Amino acid sequence: MSGTSGKSLPNDTKWWPGSCDRTTLDDMRIVGLEEHYLTDDVAAAWSRLGEGLVDPMAAFPADMAADVDRKLRSFGDERTALMDAVGVDQHVISLTTPGLFDLDESEAVALQSATNDQVADAVRGASDRMQAFATLAPQRPEAAAAELDRAVRQLGFHGAMIFSRVRDEPIDSPRFWPIFEAAEALRAPLYLHPQVAPAAVRQAYYRGFGDAVEMGLATYAIGWHYDTGVEFLRLTLAGVFDRFPDLQIILGHWGEVLAFYVERADRIGPAGGLDRSVTDYLTDNAYLTPAGMLSRRYLGWARDVMPIERLMFATDYPYVPLDDGAARTFLDGSDLSEADRIAVASGNWDRLVAGIRR
After folding, report:
1. Quick check: 10 and 311 in contact, CB under 8 A?
2. What is the Rg, in whole angstroms, of the alpha carbon atoms belonging to the chain?
3. In Å, how far are 192, 274, 323, 346 from 327, measured between CA atoms?
4. 11-354 maps to which CATH number?
5. Domain ranges of the chain
6. Distances (CA, A) of 345 to 27, 90, 325, 331
7. What is the pLDDT of residues 280-331, one digit of tens each?
8. What does each C-alpha distance from 11 to 20, 23, 225, 253, 295 come to in angstroms?
9. From the CB of residue 306, how many other CB atoms can be counted at a distance below 10 Å?
10. pTM for this one?
11. Span 155-164, pLDDT tens digits
């Protein structure tokens, strides 16, 4: 989830490259996989945490925060109009960060099924425009695993959104492994989304520059992305992918820094007792999306690191401002072949969804 416009970046790395030459594929269907929502009940639960929650809206000026909050709560005309403007045909919607992961156990569990039922109703009413990832309350891992099964088999969801930590406990802790076991059994992907780092990390790395800059450093500028990339490494070193070799994790923002340093990360494998390289785990157990960072430079790097069938699309709605037609312009203006553009736009996602066990 990114909170900067990117207007100061060079043209090659602009996040909404409106000036690209177009070779239009008018029938190309585009699906966005990191497209968020927020319900009134979850927002109310967050408010009861007080300072125990780092509100994602704190990363934005007040006027922008209000606009983002309104868009998060829209499941109807405003959302579809913005999708049309950007050029996205379907959203795979997910509860925005930090989901239910920071809540007390009882409140998180109470909200889990209710939130998924509410979203299922919204998706049923606009099935041509929306799909969904499940919301989970991992504080009770077995119940979360059962809810994932219900969400996939009964509600028609296509996996779940997860975050790096349940309060201060990493999601790679063995007690949360029932969730990974259920996801693998269902062949349903888990989207690992950025979460604000713990207070001690924020204090050590991001303090000293004033509230706005400190929050930016801890979130969209770099903190969110380090947090998620490190957590994928932790999942690898904890043995999650060795125990569940068919588990699939989706990473936004072109691999959350890790894809750019994976050859360096490979060096930790022997010390961690890994039989394979980190690169192997990334290319076997992960998919990457841009999550709104519509950069041809990053696309080129991701394509060098990952097989093309492991790249998919996302706009990070509503956190990244995008020009009209940005999604289609980005894909049409890339140097991908026609077949590869269609694969990234929706074909790879459709193939992944087709393999889910209902």
Report:
1. no
2. 19
3. 22, 38, 9, 12
4. 3.20.20.140
5. 11-354
6. 11, 11, 14, 8
7. 999 999 999 999 999 999 999 999 999 999 999 999 999 999 999 999 999 9
8. 9, 19, 22, 18, 9
9. 20
10. 0.91
11. 999 999 999 9
